[in-house]
Amino acid sequence: MTAVDDRRVHTAFENLEVPEGFKAELIRGEIVMMAGPDKVHNRIVQSVQDQIPADRWERLQTQDVAFPAEDSEPQPDLVVMEIGADDSPGRLVPGPAVTMLVEVVSKTSVHRDYVEKRSIYAAGRVAVYLIIDPFEAQCLVLTEPTGTGLSADYQSKRTRKFGDPVPLPIIGIELDTSGFGTLPPLRAAP
């Protein structure tokens, strides 16, 4: 993509009027729009937010994060950063201010959450990326980001089933997943 194209996409994204009940993200130069989440999704995000100590961590739901090197402005389900890491106004939190990002998988976000955002967040050096999958009833904790661009990834990967505690030592908690709701497994297309 050229610099002119980049500016056009960013201008279009900033001026986009998103219909009620939808959200939009900029993922590697592409504007992606999706329907709003269901109640299972929202309850999981709320549970995670409630377990993160508010005296040390700022916890922002659906906050846009800037990853300029990736030409991306994703809107994670939950952004966690140390209090005072970013006190600037505006809609964008700079990627380097973020300690943990949380995505709860939906029917339409599986590939984006597990593949695209994983490499974007790793390239942006987000210390912890937590993927919560209500279809598989599991959490994937990714730490130790490495690499750049499409090949960026996390060196450490831990999977925990719902009901098992999820250690998040950087945040200083063991996440209680026993109350997380589930959804029927997704079926692969024939």
Automatic annotation (TrEMBL):
Keywords from UniProt, A to Z, are: Endonuclease, Hydrolase, Nuclease
What taxonomic lineage is listed for the species of origin?
Answer: Bacteria, Bacillati, Actinomycetota, Actinomycetes, Kitasatosporales
In its UniProt entry, the species of origin is given as Streptomyces fuscus
Tell me one GO molecular function of this protein: endonuclease activity
Name the UniProt record assigns to this protein? Uma2 family endonuclease
Which residues span the membrane? none
What are the residue boundaries of the Putative restriction endonuclease domain, all occurrences included? 13-176
By its UniProt entry, which InterPro entries does this protein fall under? Nuclease_put_TT1808, Restrct_endonuc-II-like, Uma2
One of the Pfam families matching this protein, by short name: Uma2
Record's SUPFAM superfamilies? Restriction endonuclease-like (SSF52980)
